[in-house]
Each structure stands twice: as C-alpha cells, then as structure tokens.
Amino acid sequence: MSFTNFSDRVITFKLVYWGTGLGGKTTNVRRLLDLHGQEQPLLASHVQLELGRWFPLRAFRLRVFVNVTPGARVRDPSRALILRGADGIVFVCDSQASWLRSNVDSLQELDETLAVQGRALAELPHVVQYNKRDTPTALPLDRLRPIFNRHGAPEFMAVAREGAGVVDTFRAITRMMLARAYIA
Ligand SMILES: Nc1nc2c(ncn2[C@@H]2O[C@H](COP(=O)(O)OP(=O)(O)OP(=O)(O)O)[C@@H](O)[C@H]2O)c(=O)[nH]1
Ligand SMILES: [Mg+2]
C-alpha cells in the first residue's frame, strides 16, 4: 500500500517484479539502478529508487521500493511475503518458446497467491513485459498476449540485457501506481 509522508513530502510505493526464474527480472532492476545513478548491491532483490517529482504531484518526491521475487521453479513462501501489499506488479515473461510452460506456471502462482491475499491482478496496477525479444525462438506477441495479458494491461517488448524496454516498463507502472495513490 502506498504511503504518503506529508511532513517529508514523500510518497512511497511498493513495486514487485514477478516472473519465471531467469526471465530477466534482476536485469531490469540493475538497469534501473544504473539509470538513476545508484550503486549496485550484491543482490538487487530489494532496492529503493528515488525518482524525484513527477507530474502532476510536483509537491511530493516519489520513492519506489522495488522487490524482485526469486523465480526458481519450486514454490517459495517468500514470494507471497514479497507480494503482500504491492502497489504494482511487473510480470516479466520470457519470450522464448521453451519457457512458455514456466511463464504459465509463474502467472498461475501469481493469481493464486494474490487470491489468498484477497486481491486479484485485474484490479491491481500491473504491466506485462515480454523480455528476451532478441532470442531466436521468441514467440510472436499474438501468441503470448492472450495467455499473459488477459486484462488488457499496458505491455512492453524488451531486451532487458541491452536496456531496451526497461524504462518504458518502469515508467508505465509507476504512473499507474501514482494515479492509484491519489485517485482511488
Ligand atoms: N538474450 C537475452 N538474455 C537476457 C535478457 N534479459 C536478461 N537476460 C539474461 O537472462 C539471464 C537471467 O536474467 P536475470 O535478470 O538474472 O533473471 P531473473 O528473472 O532475475 O532470474 P531469477 O533470479 O532466477 O528469478 C541472465 O543471464 C541475463 O543476462 C534479454 O533480454 N535477452
Ligand atoms: Mg533474479
């Protein structure tokens, strides 16, 4: 849940990158740290990005706690803990054909974990990132979209390793979280 500190004039969000193991979640976050001139921790699983002031809430500085879920196949209860109270979710889909099943499992686990927490993806700010578009077996968007973007969320193609699509993805979800913070 976003938190507004009126005396310091900072709005804080919790953002979660969710997706299959090796899909490129940590690569996204490391790129974001570089772009914001922040140092790279050993593990970039839980980092804090200082964004400055964004239109239209110029009176406040934005701070985003970015959390990356460990994506290994085995179910890990820490993923539920990380997800709890998220203001926004980036679902990172590995576009490679051989990863289709893994992506499906990951999305199903996201749905189930949210349900246990009394929430649903359809009602949460979220975006879908189709990563690894540079790989030879990357599936066409028409194939991936019906499976991984059932709620018509903003979606982005990415080659996170080269930085492509990383910022667009992050800006979109941050705008959605910001809008939710003062509208809803
Ligand atoms: N070809 C290609 N490789 C990528 C891309 N993005 C990330 N990778 C590589 O994919 C591997 C896994 O990336 P990570 O960012 O560690 O993936 P992750 O989702 O954090 O994985 P877990 O921490 O295991 O859940 C690394 O070797 C990255 O360099 C991409 O767009 N294209
Ligand atoms: Mg990782």
Which characteristics define this entry?
single chain, 184 residues, alpha/beta, Rossmann fold, seven-stranded mixed sheet, 5 helices, 33% helix, 24% strand, binds guanosine-5'-triphosphate, binds magnesium ion
Write the CATH fold name.
Rossmann fold
Number of domains: 1
Question: What composes the largest sheet?
Answer: 7 strands, mixed
Which ligands appear in the coordinates?
Answer: guanosine-5'-triphosphate, magnesium ion
Number of helices: 5
> Rg from C-alpha positions?
16 Å
Strand fraction:
15-25%
CATH class: Alpha Beta
Helix percentage range: 25-40%
Describe this structure in words.
- The relative contact order is 0.20.
- 33% of the residues lie in helices and 24% in strands.
- The protein is globular and about 50 Å long.
- The chain has a single domain, classed as P-loop containing nucleotide triphosphate hydrolases (Rossmann fold), CATH 3.40.50.300.
- Strands 1, 2, 3, 4, 5, 6 and 7 form a seven-stranded mixed sheet that branches.
- It is α/β, with parallel strands linked by helices and 184 residues long.
- Bound molecules: guanosine-5'-triphosphate and magnesium ion.
- The site of guanosine-5'-triphosphate has 19 residues, from helix 1.
